[in-house]
Amino acid sequence: MSPTFSIDTATVRRIATLARIEVTDAELSTWAEQLSGIMGWIEQLKEVNTDGVAPMSGGTDLKLTLRPDVVTDGDMVDQVLANATEAQDGFFTVPKMVE
Amino acid sequence: MSELTSLTIAEARSRLKRKEFSALELTEAHLSAMERARHLNAYITETADLARERAKESDKRLAAGEGRPMEGIPLGIKDLFCTEGVQTTAASRILEGFSPPYESTVSQKLRDAGTVMLGKLNLDEFAMGSANITSAFGPVKNPWTPQGRKAELVPGGSSGGSAAATAAHLCMGATGTDTGGSIRQPASFCGLVGVKPTYGRCSRWGVVAFASSLDQAGPITRNVRDAAIMLKAMCGYDAKDSTSANLAVPDFEAVLGQGVKGLRIGIPKEYRPDGLNAEVNALWNQGIDWLEKAGATIVDISLPHTQYALPTYYIVAPAEASSNLARYDGVRFGLRVPGKSLDDMYAKTRATGFGAEVKRRIMIGTYVLSAGYYDAYYVKAQKVRALIMRDFNEAFEKVDAILTPTAPSAAFGINDKIDTITMYLNDVFTVPASLAGIPGASVPAGYTTEGLPLGLQVLTKRWDEETLFRVCQSLEDAAGFKGLGPL
User: Which domain holds residue A20?
Assistant: First the structure.
């Protein structure tokens, strides 16, 4: 494990904001330590020569198939809303965003 | 009725057809076994009434001589498969109260084959784990216990409930999902057969997503034939999954008697690192010997990028997970924790709803995908992944199948203190095949000196599950492994 790899608490805060996960100030340093440990271990990938290698972006060697661009499903508002904590008049509701 | 729970799927199938007992009796026997074994915590949700209803339907069909391929066979379903009208949790608090209005393709196919769902099985939260200790519903206990000391062991993960329930005869087989080893490693820890088919064989539609380019469903059973029967029912083309393969599904059961005579079996030197557990190493040598005696040719091979598979996986899988799990926002389903603003509600909901391991992987994934790091980590990992696949492609020009250990150890203790990376190392032998998208299976082959099961892993090239099953059957025949009886 690379002892030099370090993710600081400011970076943790930035990642947590991007990930929309609330992190308390008390948790920041624990997270920094944990993420530094994992990323330090991952650093070994830098040893691998990948010049001229095309990235593998999916799990299959088959061509993705296309289908006609037509509606095949839908018209089930009640089912779609059935699992929402709050729904009103056929819509999901969220806290007020615009004053 | 423990006699009924001791049957294999193949035996129950023919005896149901001969009407020696009813599907309802078979289901009742399993429901009472489940009740007696609740201390294992294998099931999150038991669906007894639904099971009885479906078993009665099976009895009607059997009476009319219209039994389907798995008519009346009681199974457990990993709680990662959405099941119509039955709570689906992914073992996470964030899906609290979620009852899908639809059925996953795989569980629908199993229903269409006549199987009876007994309930939803425990797992690591969002299938992230190798010990089934990250579940919001508590850890699962392995029904196997070590000789000579008192300890509660993990069943492996993430399909830990599936493995524990199958090993303890609380179902005749169970669905699992495997992203980096989550079918094969728990199968090894619980003395079972676990098959991860080629990526694309089983539809992912309706399976709660973890890492979409890796996730693949498969069966966990007590023997190879049962796995062949169950996999056939699970796989096949599905227009609702764009990566589902539009290929004919072979009759896996038909090849079981063909043996391994003339097959070339590769033994990759990179799977024998310094410090490999001596018992695991000895069992691997034993497996090589068995296959050679059965007429296979053993070939030494090299998969040079093996050591980079695990760090590659811990970029690719968290990256995909961070994207897939963005949908848990407290708006459309599951848990909602109120906040001062919309963003605050998201952040509080996700902080409360996700457990530590899930958060860890979302954070890693978010980091490696963030501006400035994308090429250095994510694209780099995708390139190394291509090299890992190339290693396998080159190997399969020389051999028909590869034999390795499934896991670096037998099951460990539920309360053992294990650091994050050591836990990740559980999947060191299973992750390479996941990254390459090739099929892999674990077959129980022997025991530790404490009497705990150990599995061997068989790998073949894409879409060649038939050779995979031939090698698995040959190992099973040679090993004469005896699993647990009903509890």
Answer: 1-47
